[in-house]
Design brief:
InterPro entries: Luciferase-like_sf. The protein has ten helices and four strands; from the N terminus they run αβαβαααααβαβαα. It has helices spanning 2-5, 17-33, 55-62, 83-86, 99-109, 113-118, 122-127, 136-150, 166-190, 209-212, and strands at 10-13, 43-51, 131-134, 154-158. It is globular.
Length: 214
Amino acid sequence: MWAAEKRIPYIMLATEMEPTKRAFQLYHDTAAEHGYESGSQNIGYLWKVHVDETEELAEQTARKYVQGPSNPFLAGNEGTVNPALVNLPGLTSRTRVLPTQTVATAARGGGGGVAGVLGRPYEQQIEDYTIIAGTPKTVISRIRHVLEYVRPGSIFFWDGDGAMTHDDAMRSLRLMGQEVIPAVKEIAKELELPGPFEVDPATGKDIPQEVAAG
């Protein structure tokens, strides 16, 4: 893996957790082959998270992830990357692919109907944690599960997409700032998941906080 060889942090984008975990392990194994120990500071994960005032409103709004305007890099908004757009000829190895590629290919062909061809339905994405939605209490608990399982040092929440309105996004942003993000920071400390602003991905050494603060 080129990123691990160069000690560059590697970010997985909205992929299912099991192949994501295997891809991160590939990074760690490659790092060991090159004589250093990588950690959470070297890996990151982005996935869909929407927080709302009630469970009912959260579900109603989160379903909009798979509705509305399509992201051009996805087949609809159903959560499956379109390989024709992201694996352009000459830019991607055809022999060294991550575990997530097999999963994405299977998702595009299985299940029958529009959902089976174009991607995974909302219910499946909720079940496999690639979409998390709920009140702050629910969301924090499910985020903790993701952090425990794939152990990234950087995380990114994908929200306000599909058919979501400005008000939908603002409710989530408010609750993210007030309740979710502070709780997630504490979980990261508890699970010992430093990010690249706390531990240098290239050296594995702690970064003085006065330097990290700018």
